[in-house]
Amino acid sequence: MSIKKIITILLISLFNPVSAENLRQDELKLQQVTENVYAIVGSMENRTADNLGNNSTFGFVVTTQGVVLIDSGGTYQGAKRIHKVIKQVTDKSVVTVINTGGQDHRWLGNGYFKKLGAKIIANDKAVEDQKARLQEQIFMLNNVVGLKGVDGTEAVFAENLFDTDMKISVGETKLEIYHAGPAHTPSDSFVWLPEQQVIFSGDIVFTERLLGILDHSSSKDWIRAFEAMAAFNPRYIIPGHGHPTTLDKAKSDTYDYLKFIRQAVTQFMDNDGDIADISMVNQSAFSSLLSFDLLSGRNAQRVYSELEWE
Question: Which fold has domain 24-247?
Fold first, then answer.
């Protein structure tokens, strides 16, 4: 083994220490992004009893008044686990929780933080989406997380709502919340920290794993939502799935894929391709992303259906 390769391995070990805890897929990983701004990176696999529905990335900001948490976790028990990670950094109370969308891991932990006195903020369309899909989400969590993992989870909706945007100050920290339109869900929002130049993107950005275009997604609007977010030119992005990253990486894993899949499926349809043969659409350029085999075909089917209506 060359000296250069040995040095590279040592550097990787310093910044990513290997331990039994780090190797567990159910554990949340704490990562500091900049001063007082942190990401909590959950599993990039499916929801399981081990990860308590926390298969996504969360984040928080430590202010002079308390902690602002971005997304509360997939279950009550999952929220407790998120709080445990926050306590590694600060003993300050979680005073504000911002839900960036209607997906279960964005809001079903609200009840835990509400009991601690936190104020919950969300886009009004996010709450509509949460109410519309509540029974579906609880049924799914009971099946994949289990009754023990879902124990204590109940629907607690945000009482502080906004339409297109909201600007708040918590202590000396300024935060801006924007709903740029439907994306992964009908109600995805992002949180902008103007002083730190950081964006919490929610499910507008997936990195390292393939995004999912679901029945309630809109690939066309998702592209516009990404463009609205990217216009802020953030220094760092804390994505909805994946580790903190740059705008370039977010673009390559999310925006470029959305543009590609719509163009590829459009070409397939122009050549009189039938949805039964949608697997013929070659998506191998993105095969290095996690969950590619699970989601790529389903994404193409969903985009085909979208384009038929468009």
Answer: Metallo-beta-lactamase; Chain A (3.60.15)
